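Suppose you are handed a protein chain with no further information: no name, no annotation, nothing but its sequence. What can you learn? This example shows the usual starting point.
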Amino acid sequence: MRKMRFTLLSAMALAVLFTLTIEALASEQGNRLDGVWNVQVTILSACGPTGVPVGGLPSIIMFTRDGKVIETPGTPLVGPPVVLRVSPGLGTWQHQQGQQYSAAFTFFRINVPANTFVGTHTITEDIEVSNHGDEFTATGTSEVLDTARNVIQSGCNILTGTRID
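A reasonable first move is to predict its three-dimensional structure. Written in structure tokens, the prediction is:
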């Protein structure tokens, strides 16, 4: 009788542990960032509450499981100053807490008429993934650097993302 009671209690404990593990995995997968996202970037006139949309562009961003970012814009021309994008944005992302993440990536800037390197552009984002994990919203900052790595322009943007994969 004792052996049967011990076996029954062990089985019940394993069932509870298994259920808690499955629920934790489902919750973790529901708001994860890794994957491929279709993103709409809205460029703002200023940072903070006075910023109004002044432009935008589509983008596809991949957040890899090992913390890397690969970003490609839907248009090669950005500006001002008008430059040609000839590289994807490359960078890293980190989990902050809960559904919050941060990411940063950089891409090269090329002068269109002269076809010369004019610097880099770095985007930093604070991202929040939705409860179901298929969408995110983000606020971002942008720094344009010249060839000597001096900041020549900065700005803010907002992003909305929909999971592709």
